[in-house]
């Protein structure tokens, strides 16, 4: 009877007892030991071997594994793939191609046999070498080999390699040695045969220490990644810690399916943190832009005018010398697009209507009209723009009364104003009498306490109290003008809607933001006597 495997080997395998599992068996000591240990704990393994065709004699490994599986009474699945040809055809490096092909093969075998998991025999030595390689490459998160990904499980990542060899010797079980494992021209082989022995001579526990780094890094990465995942569209990214921003960028790139390198992540992160504009070309000639505190990963679809064009108006994209007349005066269109943070690569794709070089309409969200152009086109003014105009009028009334200049209106289901309010805190001696709360109270008197089909329009980003009132009233949408960096609840200080409050309104910021910000600035300047 063979000696039982040490508990350090069998304990991680007990969840697989009695289950059909696919085991990647290369013929090396680790994978052979995993196959034998799974049989000892009563699992039902399928031995799967991929011949990568990367070296002479690799076919001998396949035959050896086939014979071992037959001897043990284990089903065998094997195939040969010219990985070097795949790498050249797909533009991958050979190591990446080998990994992709191997896991695709293992997954295919698992589906064919109805296996609940795919097991690989990576040990603590593999983990330590991977972390060291990541550190030397300057990876942002040296998290090593993950214990699980999809249906793949790596139960021996905490097992020392010495225990594996001791187990095999006790069984009298041989294994195959890959000659490339001793070739110092290969990076991993150099780390294994030259670097790790040197480090171990000075730091005997270096393998455990590096594996611990991987564990801590994964835990930190999971926590920071969850933080990054909670960032909403209106959260000011520049206010986030760099570690969270890096993960935000990585998440966005991965979800878009874009390849990237560490330097790309750093460049985009720095631009977000500093509120700058950056343009990058990623592998595959994909362009990414950071501008206005946002990451733009894909070409955008810009609105087309859906109304009859007045006589003399031309539909086109921008040209040199284009200008547009706005409430503050006539400006170059190029400057306006820059101020509105339209990505540089998108500016020539934005549709516009013009008379000569006088731009009348720009296909943004919401559309930008020149002064008087919507009346000439017979189109109603954008309702949010008009509502913000009314809120600004209320804000000016507040300023005239010595209040902080904030005004708000509530639009009902049909778009009519059903609630109005301005700051009354000083006048009423009650610091809860903010513009938003006043407007919500008036709307509730007409429509009842729940305002689900309504829109709250306010000149300044709501504070936590006012956001809470809007959430309690089940307001469907919140539209604000200027940011409130000192007390804003939608990212100015803290993005409260990143958490679940039972109801989450849609949020649009920056509507007539310049006018709202100018009113605030001028009011406070007058109070200071300047």
Top keywords for this entry?
530 residues, alpha/beta, six-stranded mixed beta sheet, 20 strands, 42% helix, 16% strand
Can you tell me about this structure?
This protein has 530 residues and is α/β, with parallel strands linked by helices. 42% of the residues lie in helices and 16% in strands. It is built from 18 helices and 20 strands. The chain has helices at residues 7-10, 29-40, 58-72, 83-90, 94-113, 124-137, 161-171, 187-202, 206-229, 242-255, 262-274, 333-339, 373-376, 383-400, 425-428, 435-447, 464-472, 513-527, and strands at residues 20-24, 44-51, 76-80, 117-119, 148-149, 152-153, 278-282, 286-291, 294-296, 314-316, 323-326, 329-332, 352-355, 358-362, 368-369, 407-411, 417-422, 455-460, 477-482, 506-508. The strands form four sheets. It has a six-stranded mixed beta sheet with strand order 3-2-1-4-6-5, sandwiched between helices. Strands 10, 11, 12, 13, 14 and 15 form a six-stranded mixed beta sheet that branches. Strands 17-16-18-19-20 form a five-stranded mixed beta sheet. A hairpin with a 3-residue loop joins strand 7 (278-282) and strand 8 (286-291). Helix 2 crosses helix 7 (161-171) and helix 14 (383-400) runs parallel beside helix 18 (513-527). It starts with 6 loop residues before the first helix and ends with a helix.
